[in-house]
Amino acid sequence: MKSRRTEFIGSFSDVRKIPSDSRPQIAFGGRSNVGKSTLLNSLVGQKKLARTSKTPGRTQALNFFLINDRYYFVDLPGYGFAKAPENVRLAWGKVVDKYLNTVDNLCGFVFLLDCRRDPKEEDLMLLEWLEDRKLTYIMVLTKADKIGRGALAKKMSDMKQAFKSADMVPFSAQTGIGIAEILKWVDNIVEKYKSGQMVRGSEK
Ligand SMILES: Nc1nc2c(ncn2[C@@H]2O[C@H](COP(=O)(O)OP(=O)(O)OP(=O)(O)O)[C@@H](O)[C@H]2O)c(=O)[nH]1
Ligand SMILES: [Mg+2]
Description:
Layout: E1 6-12, E2 25-30, H1 36-44, E3 62-67, E4 71-75, H2 86-102, E5 106-114, H3 121-133, E6 137-142, H4 149-162, E7 167-170, H5 179-194, E8 198-199, E9 202-203
Parallel strand pairs: 2-4, 2-5, 5-6, 6-7
Antiparallel strand pairs: 1-3, 3-4, 8-9
The structure holds guanosine-5'-triphosphate and magnesium ion (MG).
């Protein structure tokens, strides 16, 4: 896989300080430990760009990466990390909430779900928000190497049934499954955004 030119721009806990240029932004969101930072690293072909960890709650601010000088990947803090102190959890929620509700050039959302789990309340709330906001998103079922082929196929079919309108793809950092498809999805929406076919992440 050809690696994409990638630059770490910064880690922001104050939404007012994020890059203010008009390049499109693609956010990566989901439960803590689901594999957001790992997916981001796989997509750009670098192992250690975004920090990953066995301990949930590794990513605690909005991490911005500039890709090919063309668009941003935004690694969001994960939700549902029960062990975090209440005040920390509330602060994370606020940052993500503010980001999602105020950024104009957010043009797509990569929603991650562990392929071994069912969506929980917080996942469903985020999905509902994506639908309401009509933001273009792709649902990625992560850690696909952890279950057998048959189980993965069944999970994909169940999830497609439950979320009929969603683009869906399995991903594994170990086997590389899904990377090409997700990159194609990214390139497609960036292209659409740049050519003016999108307004605030929805197709015109
Ligand atoms: N087997 C396997 N492990 C994975 C895969 N993706 C991520 N992991 C592991 O899952 C753990 C969490 O991955 P991260 O990428 O740090 O998860 P995150 O969603 O960024 O977590 P937070 O930043 O805490 O929200 C790490 O130990 C990864 O190595 C995968 O495709 N397969
Ligand atoms: Mg992370």
